[in-house]
Amino acid sequence: MADTNGPAQISERLAGVELPRHIAIVMDGNGRWAQRQGQPRYAGHRAGARSVREVVEACGRLELEALTLFAFSSENWRRPRGEVRVLMQLFRTTLDQELQRLHENDVRLSFIGDRTQFEAGLQRRLTDAEALTAENTGLQLIVATSYGGRWEIAEAARRLAASAARGEVDPQSIDEDAFRGALSLPDVVDPDLFIRTGGERRISNFLLWQMAYTELHFAETLWPDFGTEGLARAIEDYAARDRRFGAVTSYPLKSVRHA
Ligand code: IPE
Ligand code: IPE
Ligand code: MG
């Protein structure tokens, strides 16, 4: 029987609903998902990859501009070595398996985070995937890996300080726009909607600068069970929000970079 609730149906399901331009997701709860079924944590990460596929396809069909997925945080290096190894392996194999299909679907891939922490082979794969898909004009899929919001802000400060030391930038001219220009992907619109699965209500060092006015949605669902249905509900929740950006009257839901 055809799936009547999968990514292919999401446009119909959300017809007439005001959509975000950019969604950012903390994909949490893989370990608990596995443990509840008496399986090792890594089985949850594998199952999580299926949910990634579904959500990426759904966002593409909805013609969103950008989707940022938090795959591995700068703090996740503190996990047991075995788990880190499995996560890196899974990252590599999923990228290898999915890259061609993403490319065929006009997805542009970008990675943010401290890639100097990865082994050379993986670093090369990331650069190659970005180069292959650089001209695509569909969904921009941003994978945050070895990423921390504070790391990104510190990096930007370091870049600006180096430019100032070389005499290229006048410190007095460093305003919010100049700072944004030094972030990893300055041209990507700020996320309109943040989603965290797995029940925790925290940001865990995700896009700290970019989320100043993002709408927050927390789902109890564990990431492997989230899929298209969880995404559709999160977008419906978003569509019911009243975004004011500090003003008195409502802004249209579409994001305003500088309100
Ligand atoms: C999220 O799931 C995936 C990563 C952080 C890499 P977790 O592994 O954090 O799963 P829980 O939160 O322990 O259930
Ligand atoms: C956040 O999840 C990072 C990712 C989903 C990649 P964590 O499971 O690492 O966050 P904490 O430890 O609960 O804050
Ligand atoms: Mg977690």
Automatic annotation (TrEMBL):
Please name the top-level EC class of this enzyme: transferase
> What keywords is this UniProt entry annotated with?
Cell shape, Cell wall biogenesis/degradation, Magnesium, Metal-binding, Peptidoglycan synthesis, Transferase
User: Magnesium: is it a keyword of this entry?
Assistant: yes
Binding residue positions for substrate:
29-33, 41, 45, 73-75, 77, 79, 196, 202-204
Q: Which GO terms describe its biological process?
A: cell wall organization; peptidoglycan biosynthetic process; polyprenol biosynthetic process; regulation of cell shape
Superkingdom, natural source:
Bacteria
Q: Per its UniProt record, what InterPro entries does this chain match?
A: UPP_synth-like, UPP_synth-like_CS, UPP_synth-like_sf
Give the family per the record: Belongs to the UPP synthase family.
The protein in question is named Ditrans,polycis-undecaprenyl-diphosphate synthase ((2E,6E)-farnesyl-diphosphate specific)
What is the species of this protein?
A: Halorhodospira halophila (strain DSM 244 / SL1) (Ectothiorhodospira halophila (strain DSM 244 / SL1))
User: By which gene is this protein encoded?
Assistant: uppS
